[in-house]
Write a structure and sequence with these properties.
By secondary structure, this protein is an all-alpha fold. It contains ten helices and no strands. The protein has helices at 2-6, 12-34, 37-45, 47-55, 60-78, 81-84, 88-110, 130-157, 166-189, 196-204.
């Protein structure tokens, strides 16, 4: 993880992902200076999620997708888009929960908690297609539930401006679960590790 995190970017997609990470960091600083402390806190919550794909050595396309999705989700909250744009909340729950559930699945794989969850992992080993299709939606539902708990705690103890209702909670979790289903299918078919295809090619050589 350390080597991947410190490795200089070598392709346009990797440069773009790092640029998005820099935007995320600068956004937190800007929010701390010019916006409310709660806005800076919301922006800061996105930083671990945008750093993880680089630490895990994930493919540039997925790295960019994760960074862009998480930053849009965070700053949509800062600019109150979830209240002002109809359906925007559901779209971001679908997308953000999907990409985060893939990241969670990769972490569980790398730490040996679960079996391989991708069509190709870092060693190029193939796995049964149904593994990610079952695991990733479960992770998505867990992430959705955790997020709704955080929203409730924020509403209960920080600010009643946070929008929390029963229907909103259920709708968010449904869309998060559907995002996990889509992400599970994607993970079963497409490699998300930067070294995955290279390892598979070497394995197939005589």
């Amino acid at each position: 993880m350390k080597d991947d995190f410190l490795r200089p970017p070598a392709a346009p997609g990797e440069w773009l992902a790092d640029a998005l990470r820099l935007i995320g960091v600068l956004g937190v600083i800007g929010a701390a200076i010019w916006l409310k402390p709660t806005d800076a806190g919301i922006a800061a919550l996105a930083l671990p999620a945008v750093m993880l794909p680089r630490m895990l050595g994930l493919a540039a396309w997925f790295d960019v997708t994760t960074c862009a999705t998480v930053l849009v989700a965070a700053w949509s909250n800062v600019f109150d888009l979830y209240r002002t744009v109809t359906g925007w909340d559901l779209v971001l729950h679908f997308l953000c929960t999907g990409v985060l559930s893939v990241v969670a699945a990769v972490i569980l794989t790398r730490t040996g908690v679960v079996a391989l969850v991708s069509a190709f992992d870092g060693s190029g080993a193939r796995v049964r297609g149904r593994t990610p299709i079952v695991l990733v939606p479960l992770l998505a539902l867990a992430i959705s539930a955790m997020w709704e708990m955080i929203e409730w705690l924020g509403w209960r103890y920080i600010s009643d401006d946070i929008f929390v209702t029963y229907q909103d909670t259920i709708g968010d979790m449904v869309l998060g679960g559907l995002g996990g289903v889509a992400a599970g299918v994607l993970l079963a078919l497409v490699p998300v590790g930067r070294h995955a295809l290279d390892h598979d090619v070497r394995k197939d050589r005589p």
